[in-house]
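Retro notes
What went well: the complex prediction finally ran end to end.
Inputs used:
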Amino acid sequence: MATKTETNGPPREWHRPWGIAVGVALLLIVLPLVGREGAGVNLLNALVRFANFVVIPGMTYGSQLALGALGVTLIYAVMRFSDFAHGDTMAFGAMGVILATRVLQGMGISAGPLPTALLALPFGILGAVTLALVFDRTVYRFYRRQRAAPVTFVIASIGAMFVTNGLVRLIIGPSDQRFADGARFIIRVQAFKEMTGLSEGLALRTTQAITLVVAVVVVLALFLFLNRTSLGKAMRAYADNEDLALLSGINPERVALWTWILAATLATIAGTLYGLDKSFKPFTYFQLLLPIFASAIVGGIGKPLGAIAGGFVVAFSEIALTYPYRKVLDYLGFETDSLVQLLSADYKFAVCFIILVVVLIWRPRGIFQGRVI
Amino acid sequence: MADPFLIGEAMTCGYGDANILHGCTIAVEQGEIAVIVGPNGAGKSTAMKAVFGLLPLRGGVVRLGGQDISTLTPPDRVAAGMGFVPQTNNVFPSLTIRENLEMGAYLCPQNIEDRIAQLTNLFPILKERSQQPAGELSGGQRQQVAVARAMMTQPRVLMLDEPTAGVSPILVQELFARIQEIAAAGIAVLIVEQNARQALSLAHRGFVLVQGKNRFTGTGQDLLNDPDVRQSFLGG
């Protein structure tokens, strides 16, 4: 106990100057605004615009990345390799959901205001889990028995990625699919404007709200599983110390089986949420691999909490750095002709790369002290 | 004469082409402590690994309670009643102490609370810090967790590979005292130890290995008193 209070003391001292600096900075921004007519309303307008174009999309995209990165990080923790097929597993799972959605729609079944895809989710999960287990039995188990080096697994997973990618394009085709149905908005721009009297509107799409709710539920369930159940603890133990896990009677095949089941389930949920929110296109999912890996590494690979934190860091960096701030600044009284966009949206992948490079050079174990790659 | 409870008899094994053990024999009875000592590279840890099945035998046999277990895998030997504490990486660092103990009972989770209570009597630290990750403990505390985890498998034989490596001198005494209590409860204890003098003083049986062969065998006290052993291994 004594050591605890000691370690808590000094950091608080260190925070004080920063607190003062932030306070002064805020005052400098807010003070000139208060003096102007309608300053309060303009500040609100700026905040609403920021929420509408940065905060809400960031939270949504962050949740999707977090769910994807959780799968990557679980596989890395237990099997000790980066699964390059994960993006395409997301596509495969989402494809299963789309096909099941079409069947359900054909049968006249719907979920009312919610997208039918939520009902179709179990079918997609079943498909993705089956695919993952087929790969595990036919490919990964062989290398596991050989105790192959991690890089062998990585190369094998690239093979699995191409196969999955091909299967998805064969079955559903390479083009865009929209499968969101039900109510489109929870809050509409017009309704928001009328309700608040602000000139700036705020929209909350159903798919965005669903993404957030589902992500919270899934993450809670995953953490309960990992921390409370015997199987979850065994998975953590196996990830921690494989040899000692064997000596404790933990069966590695059973751990591998459940890791794939969890990872494929997370991948399907992430893929479906992403598809509902944006649209489903196989190539996009392949590209998602980069931000997902970046999220897992930024957070500390092998650490589930890190995957979640990393997902939000990457999502907010991508969006905040590519959003044009002109209108927000307009409301704050800084009128300019430029868009005040730090990077063109085309560079959002560059943002991921920069984050990856910075983290790998200066903090290779990530925010939550995961493994060194 | 009846076979000892656990015996690795005339074991020959090694890595690659070279053999490290050449017909080496190690044995321990229930309720006794047997210690393997010897100079660096004598094959002490290798003998332990051979008995536990981590290294395949090229000659000889391992018997537990009269049964030949030479072909069993290490996990099967754990199920057969052998507990093993490796020298390093012997805890799950990100799991709490309590979870480390639970993992020891993974195969047979019956009356787990009783077993944990018993072990927390032996090692009070386990209770005080039960919710702390094992990776945050000091070397000595970590060894206690490692021994306790192995004890959770309810072994009839407890095998410890250099349990005092990296443990402060005061805690070494403490740890040995606990190991004696474990043996007194009727468990066979087999220890590989650098700390030869101290370990032999509490051993019922001592094995001095040199270059993969038994050089001296006897009770711990005999070995301590033997002028040859003293001369060559205990520094006079």
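What we learned: The longest helix of chain B spans residues 169-184.
What to try next: split runs per interface for comparison.
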